[in-house]
Design goal:
The chain has 113 residues and is mainly α. It contains six helices and no strands. Helix 2 packs across helix 6 and helix 4 packs across helix 6. The longest helix is centred in the N-terminal third of the chain and has 12 residues. The chain binds heme C. The site of heme C has 26 residues, from helix 3 and helix 4.
Length: 113
């Protein structure tokens, strides 16, 4: 996992107006394998602004289900930065350490409608 993470950090550093496009690349490398609508993770279509842990048909952890509120930018950022701190007991373990990368992937999530 180290190599992709380093590549992503580099991606994030290349500050660019095409933030969502960077986010899409990151998403395809780091997220899609679990978030393409299969049993590995909930679909993320429409997740920005949606209620946390509310996709019908996905079996969320009690930890994430217990979270109140919606996926605001701040909540998405906190979750992606440290999922197990945001929701101790969550089944999503992967994090996005680079702030630039988080901003890019959040910008991309907002385009998924
Ligand atoms: C190894 C599989 C896996 C990968 C890779 C993964 N996720 Fe997840 N993700 C999950 C699982 C499982 C959940 C549900 C967690 C729970 O129920 O505690 C989740 C939940 C989420 C949620 C909350 C969804 C909701 O409906 O409330 C978001 C947002 C999210 N992931 C974003 C991402 C992003 C962005 C990436 C890439 C940086 C990513 N995930 C990579 C497995 C994964």
């Amino acid at each position: 996992m180290l190599r992709p993470l380093l590549a992503l950090a580099a991606l994030g550093l290349a500050a660019t107006p095409a933030l969502a496009a960077d986010g899409e690349q990151l998403f395809n490398m780091q997220c899609k394998m679990c978030h393409a609508g299969g049993p590995m993770g909930p679909s993320l279509v429409g997740v920005a602004g949606a209620k946390i842990a509310a996709k019908p048909g996905f079996n969320y952890s009690p930890a994430l289900k217990a979270k109140e509120g919606t996926w605001t930018d701040a909540n998405l950022d906190a979750f992606l930065k440290a999922p197990t701190q945001f929701a101790p007991g969550t089944r999503m373990m992967i994090s996005v350490p680079s702030e630039e990368s988080r901003q890019a992937v959040i910008a991309y999530l907002k385009t998924l409608k």
